[in-house]
Amino acid sequence: MNKLITIACLLLTLPLAAQDWKGKFEQLDQLLPTPNEYRTASGAPGFKYWQQQADYLINAELHDDTQSITGAETITYHNNSPDALTYLWLQLDQNINAKGNNTIKSSNTSIKDSVDAKSLSASLALDDFDGGFKIKSVKDALGKELKYTINQTMMRIDLPKTLAAGQKMSFSIEWSFKINDRMKDATPNDGRSGMEYFPEDGNYLYIIAQWFPRMCVYDDVVGWQNKQFLGQGEFTLSFGNYDVNLTLPADFIAAGTGMVQNLKEVLTADQYARFVKAKTTFDKPVVICTQSEAMQREKTKSNDKKVWKFKAENVRDFAFATSRKFIWDAMAVKIGNSTPLAMSYYPKEGNPLWEKESTIAVKNTISTYSKYTIDYPYPQATSVHAASLGMEYPMICFNFGRPNKEGKYSDRLKWGMIGVIIHEVGHNFFPMIINNDERQWTWMDEGVNTFVQYRTEVENYPDKPIGRGPAANIVPYMKGNADLQRPLMVNSESVVRSNFGNEQYAKCATALNILRETVMGPELFDQAFKEYAQRWALKHPKPADFFRTLEDASAVDLDWFWRGWFYTTDNCDMSLDDVKWFKVRKDQATVENKTKTATKGDLASKGGDDNKPADFSQGPKYFSVLPTDNRFYGEFANRLDDKAVISKMETKNFYEITLSNKGGLIMPVIIEWTFKDGSKEIERLPAEIWRLNETKVTKVFAKDKEVMNVVIDPLKETADISVENNAFPKTPQPAKFDELKKKVK
Questions:
Q1: What integer pLDDT is reported at residue 22 of this predicted model?
Q2: With 0-12 CB in 10 A as exposed, 13-18 as middle and 19+ as buried, what is 303?
């Protein structure tokens, strides 16, 4: 008889036996690269970590009359690797605009009942635009021709002599290309670079990127990263120093990566004085090139030329924007021991919205991101207005947000513009500083950046509607068509384009927000996230470095989290299957009477598993708490005061809840208890409650007050896709139409 009592008591505390085990709590060690002297098991760079360097001297001219660019560059490549190199790989991303490119060939197209002319022309390349690089020459430092091979968007240069470890070499390339019209762009390229024509005044606005042959990354993990550019997976680049001399029409204003070295030569005296003032103005932007000046330049169209001399150090790329239509404003921002400039360039078509909001958004972004990562290390951050776009490069980005012709704009347009500016300026940190491989791991820059964008919006724009970040907002995607979903840990080009934003941006941002708010807590998360940023600033992190660093710096085992959110397409659908109410029987009978009572009395009368009550109206079930058998004390000489324990338990209400995991995604359990007196309590259980049984758990809770209602995930923190099964008593469901008809009859 005592054996039966022992089993009955233990059922209150022991977990259910494991069923349908899928190893969701197993470590990721077998999936992640083996740590070594370059990348450690802690997620930090190893003591022999290395990365290549590529320095550029570029002389180029933009021809406004033919909308084309000619240029010559000298690249000095530093082989800091332990490997001897017999050839070099460069990216020719402009070749995505060349005839016969693989982007058009590999895209899926179909005929619909009706289609607009622009989409049809773009998808079939009907405008006959002949873009892409025209390579004039490739020569070594002595002027001798170097053998090269072009494969779509990649170019291999064969070296006449092996480039040994620790050596550097210089070579030069001459090239040209026609600038694409962004309004006509094929969708795979999204018009990241190109021109916009303004028919009312006959002027062009140029945003120029991927505009010169650039070195591919050679690293310790994949060697040469020479995956072809198909349009979706972005850019993987080495750090270096840039000296760029741009020859432009004399009445053009230019923005670019780095700082202009000859502003006195290219600006008027008044404009230069305003620029100097902006460097010490912290409260509001100073307009350097005014709207009236821009409108005058639109009319005159100088035939003369000026050279804008840019210099940038320790950056991974160079982009620029230029037009005679530009208004330019700037203000200083205090960050740590430095005062970088926040700047904006925009045509009159962007006003009054851009003059009011853009530079303030730049300031808010670099300030907030610096708090969560590292102090912004560059001398400036620039936002440029370009139609229907959001795209980023070091120190410069191109952003949408255009009022109508009367200068009117909606709140939706304003908030959309502020959001895209925060996002694109934020890319200065991910991936321009924390320099991940965009071609392979989109989430490492887009998703991580979207997460910090969310923090920036919450902290600086409390009235702004929030899109990506909160758990509840990802639910429509998570419960969508599973056949179209991909894990975050896939190549960028494998992501279904219609899901790209929800998946690589929003899902990752949501995961990190849940990790911060629900799993780790803000203090632990922020410390670990900042550690990652500091470890990998101006270096090349991989996913394993991110995963390992957050665990290493927090002492939180997160392998279950990475597995679920990053390696699968599981969703969170946690079901509150049952809640049972128990109280301790105050009249402690003999064992025989207790067993008889349990068989014929209270327990049976309140319904068993086959007759689950729908609410608490039937009252509690009763159970006995018995004196502890001496066998359970083992070798201990002292004993519990069983009577005191029993007396304490007699006033408690016990609630046994049963949860099932229907979506497959392991998540913490958050329970809201609503008591009979109207008060509430939120109780949080770690995800490890699922470690022995990934599909079903049962747990008992002791409460001083009677419970009226139980809800899981009450604040919608876990992206649970089905709230219908989250409450007890169950929420009455609407009657089906057929049943309603019967009742009417």
A1: 83
A2: exposed
* 188 close to 231: Cβ distance less than 8 angstroms: yes
CA pair distance 711, 724, nearest whole angstrom: 10
| Measured distance CA(487)–CA(481) in Å, rounded | 13
Check the CA dihedral 411-415-417-418 and report its sign. Answer: positive
> Which has the closest alpha carbon to 149: 106, 93, 92?
92
Q: Rounded to an integer, what is the distance from CA 504 to the centroid of its chain?
A: 7
| CA pair distance 332, 281, nearest whole angstrom | 6
CA distance 431 to 449: 8
Radius of gyration of the chain (CA): 32
Average of pLDDT values for 22-29?
90
Q: Is the pLDDT of residue 256 over 90?
A: yes
Mean pLDDT of the residues in the chain? 90
Is the pLDDT reported for residue 125 higher than 90? no
Contact 505, 450 (CB under 8 A): yes
- Sheet containing 396-399, strands listed edge to edge, beginning at the edge strand earlier in sequence: 286-289, 327-332, 341-346, 380-385, 396-399, 390-393
pLDDT digits (tens, 9 = 90+) for 190-236: 568 999 999 999 999 999 999 999 999 999 999 999 999 988 889 99
Alpha carbon 719 to chain centroid distance?
16
Joined tokens for residue 426? 């934020």
Question: Mean pLDDT throughout 638-662?
Answer: 93
Amino acid letter at 461?
Y
Q: Rounded CA gap, 582 and 701, in Å? A: 10
Q: What would the DSSP string read from start to end of 366-385?
A: HHHHHHHS----SSEEEEEE
Contact present, 277 and 404 (Cβ < 8 Å): no
To which residue do tokens 């923005």 refer?
255
Distances in whole angstroms, Cα of residue 676 to Cα of each of 390, 413, 681, 710:
53, 47, 12, 12
Residue ranges of alpha helices (H) inside 51-156 are 102-106, 117-123
Per DSSP, the chain holds a count of helices (H) and strands (E) of 19, 31
Which residues partner with 603 through β-bridges?
Answer: none
- What sign for the dihedral angle of Cα 606, 610, 616, 621? positive
**Beta-strand runs (E) in 348-430:** 380-385, 390-393, 396-399
The residue whose two tokens read 């198909």 is 230
Q: Is residue 613's pLDDT more than 80?
A: no
Order of all β-strands in the sheet with 203-208: 194-198, 203-208, 320-323, 253-256
In 464-539, DSSP assigns E strands to none
* In contact, 549 and 531? CB cutoff 8 Å: yes
CA separation for the pair 490, 505 (Å, rounded): 13
> Measured between alpha carbons, how far is 343 from 363 in angstroms, rounded to an integer?
9
Taken in order of first residue, the domains within the chain and their CATH numbers are 2-22+574-740 (no CATH), 50-107+116-238 (2.60.40.290)
Please answer whether residues 529 and 372 qualify as being in contact, where contact means their C-beta atoms are separated by less than 8 angstroms: yes
Contacts of 107 (CB under 8 A, 6+ apart): 123, 188
Distance, in Å, from the CA atom of 551 to the CA atom of 553, rounded to the nearest integer, reads 6
Q: Beta strands 214-215 and 203-208: pairing type?
A: unpaired
- pTM of the predicted protein model: 0.91
